[in-house]
Write a structure and sequence with these properties.
This protein has a five-stranded mixed β-sheet with strand order 2-1-5-3-4. It starts with a strand and ends in a 6-residue tail after the last strand. 18% of the residues are buried. By secondary structure, the chain is an alpha+beta fold. The longest helix has 8 residues. It has a single domain, classed as Beta-grasp domain (Ubiquitin-like (UB roll), Roll), CATH 3.10.20. This is Molybdopterin synthase sulfur carrier subunit. One of its GO terms (cellular component) is molybdopterin adenylyltransferase complex.
């Protein structure tokens, strides 16, 4: 399945890009599985998307979690938690 991935803040800075398009392996079906798969793509991906880092995830501009199901053609975003005051 084809997925567009958008990166924000420190993730974008670490990877040197704000967007990537990926053809996911058939067994990747959730945001959590995709995040783990992306960490195998390069050392930069492993550093930026390390599971120890607190990151928020969204699918088609809707907040998600590791169990959120992916759909062909969706847009996934990774960004740090946001706080405000």
């Amino acid at each position: 399945m084809n997925i567009t991935v958008r990166y924000f803040a420190h993730v974008r800075e670490c990877l040197g890009t704000g967007r990537e398009d990926h053809e996911l392996p058939e067994q990747i079906r959730t945001l959590g599985e995709m995040r783990a798969w992306l960490t195998t793509r390069s050392e930069r991906h492993a550093e930026a998307l390390d599971s120890a880092r607190p990151l928020r995830m969204a699918c088609n501009q809707t907040m998600g979690d590791a169990q959120t199901k992916l759909q062909a053609g969706c847009e996934v975003a990774f960004f740090p938690p946001v706080t405000g005051g």
